Amino acid sequence: MARFPLVSTAPVPERAVLVGVEGRPGGWPVERSLDELERLADTAGAETVARISQRLDRPNPRTYIGSGKVDELCSLVRRIDADVVIFDDDLTPSQQSNLERAVGEPVKIIDRTALILDIFGLHATTREGRLQVQLAQLQYLLPRLRGMWSHLAKEQTRGGIGSRFGQGESQLEVDRRLIRNRIASLRRELKELERRRDVQAKSRVSSNSFRVALAGYTNAGKSSLLNKLTGSAVLAQDKLFATLDPTTRAYRLPGGRELTITDTVGFIQKLPHGLVEAFKSTLAEARDADLILKVVDASDDDFERHLEAVDRVLEEIGAGDTPAVVVFNKCDLLGDEDRRALSLRFPEAVLCSAYTGEGLDALVDRLSVEAARLDAIVDVVLPYREGALLKAIHEQGQVLVEEFDENGVHVVAKVGPRLGGILEPFGSKAN
Question: Would the CA dihedral through 55, 58, 59, 60 be positive or negative?
């Protein structure tokens, strides 16, 4: 027996109780929503030990769930020694405060937004990502400050010397001012980073590369697909929101044409609006793309709702009209019958597997077709000093005729609209 027994230093996961409300018919089933909330809790390092749900036409304005269900929750929390209660929808500051008083310390009451913000805080790695998360967290915290200082505000009601200074309200105003100042500072920093990102984006535009953005529900396999196509090593884990920062990789189509593929942050049901706002400069990669690949986990029973969630966020950031192709990933997990049914329902979609490589040739063919959709044939004569343009035609277009004479290089080629505009002074479009 060891003289000094080993003591585990591994963090003990918090014990979480999940709370959901089933609302109007036709909405997302509460059990499915709580399944996803449990995965979010697991990603944040918590262990789900119990669930509570209730059917309500509308949330209780004081405690979100009914008073009887609050009593049940309090009893359950004490019985199983829970550390945190996580609500599946947003709580107002007053609802959160009332629930905290009912359940009692030290149990924490948080909602889905707070949980997602916590996960984003864990996974943000770049400076821009960390600033965006800080901004969203502070915007979430600001309206909840009053409840945090209620213990000082109560002292004003006791009367006596010092009570007229109202230290609770004074501290509240100080903190509000500090948070507002920090929010303004973060916005300035993000504006500067956004300006730099715009410069980089413009340089990619000027390079005439066809820009593809991967968008999809979190954990649909976007990073794995990017890795398989481009041979890169972007982090890919079976976790929600494993990657937050956009990653762009160059890719050359079989015909020689170059394009860029960008992996963007994953979406989710009930994605907090504050996060969409904070990450707008990151999501702009999808907005400014020539083509969006909507990556869907074909093996998930809720893939249609996932696709709807992706469409909602794309609309919100102004990318709703961008040309898009639906890509059903993880098709290796489907049986033959399910694949046929999926192909019949979504005839324009591409079925593939980033894991096995199945269907990737069809996806590459589709990328070639989409990249050439707006192409036009140009007939130009390039002076020999314009070697960079000739190189761009070879890299980004399809050369049909190339002849050299004393005037320069006569080229007939199929090129994209941006390159075609640059070549216009040197000749005319054939069609």
Answer: negative
Residue with tokens 């004490």: 78
Given a contact cutoff of 8 angstroms between Cβ atoms, the answer to whether 251 and 329 are in contact is: no
The DSSP call for residue 57 is S
Q: Where does 56-139 show beta strands of DSSP type E? A: 84-87, 108-111
The CA-based dihedral angle spanning residues 295, 298, 304, 307, taken in that order and rounded to the nearest 10 degrees: -10
The 3-state DSSP class for residue 15 equals: strand
3-state SS assignment for residue 44: coil
Which residues, at least 6 apart from 252, have a Cβ–Cβ distance to it below 8 Å?
Answer: 258, 259
Q: CA–CA distance from 120 to each of 241, 244, 395 (Å)?
A: 7, 7, 38
Q: What angle do CA 282, 247, 118 make, to 5 degrees?
A: 60
Question: What would the pLDDT profile of 311-362 be if each residue is shown by its tens digit?
Answer: 888 888 888 888 999 999 999 999 999 999 999 999 999 999 999 999 999 9
For tokens 């309200």, what's the residue?
A: 169
Angle made by CA atoms 309, 311, 315, in degrees to the nearest 5: 120
Distance CA 56, CA 22 (A): 6
pLDDT digits (tens, 9 = 90+) for 182-206: 889 988 888 887 777 666 655 544 4
Query: Whole-model pTM above 0.85?
Result: no
Sheet containing 258-263: order of strands: 247-252, 258-263, 210-216, 291-297, 324-329, 350-351
The DSSP code sequence of 259-302 is: EEEEE-PPB-TT--HHHHHHTHHHHHHHHT-SEEEEEEETT-TT
Q: Determine contact, residues 93/39, Cβ cutoff 8 Å.
A: no
